[in-house]
């Protein structure tokens, strides 16, 4: 998505090789019109997959997931993050390790909102090491739901997540794919 790449170049701040700060349109302030255009791209790519539910992770995945759900006409569920690692009988849950935050977290989804009838589209703002994505896949598996693919706003292709999801046979559709970042430079894969 050309427009997203341009906004990343003009508004993104790079910290070292790994962290891209995009607080002005995605992670803190949110630009609705831009998110709507992202949602149109996701909806167009996945429109023939009979998506019945979108699953994302709070908090930054919710905006793109919501507008994609509006476009595809399905409900949106966000996995909640819990600090406590205790389980609850009425939830599906999976733990993952956050490399950026250096902590374990548990993602959980109520059993009321995901079932074996569902064709699920996963959405997230960033794909880095893929641990959040992997946890969402695990949650879908517990529910017996079918994972139809994953829509990512910004993929850092040089980190492990993309290859991990490719190896799982998942259709990964990323709107911007960063091949390299360093200081002021950001390179994209076409
Ligand atoms: P992973 O899921 O791909 O393994 O990534 P990781 O644990 O490293 O990411 C932890 C959090 O940091 C996630 O958000 C993820 O979206 C975000 N993240 C990863 N790389 C970047 C980056 O380069 N820039 C920015 N801005 N975020 C990045 P989160 O902690 O779950 O927070 P939020 O959804 O509430 O914003
Ligand atoms: Na984030
Ligand atoms: Na996120």
UniProtKB/TrEMBL annotation:
Catalytic activity: XMP + diphosphate = xanthine + 5-phospho-alpha-D-ribose 1-diphosphate
One term under GO cellular component: cytoplasm
Chain residues that bind xanthine: 20, 27, 156
This protein's pathway: Purine metabolism; XMP biosynthesis via salvage pathway; XMP from xanthine: step 1/1
Major place of residence: cytoplasm
Major enzyme class: transferase
PANTHER family assigned: HYPOXANTHINE/GUANINE PHOSPHORIBOSYLTRANSFERASE (PTHR43864), XANTHINE PHOSPHORIBOSYLTRANSFERASE (PTHR43864:SF1)
Protein name according to UniProt: Xanthine phosphoribosyltransferase
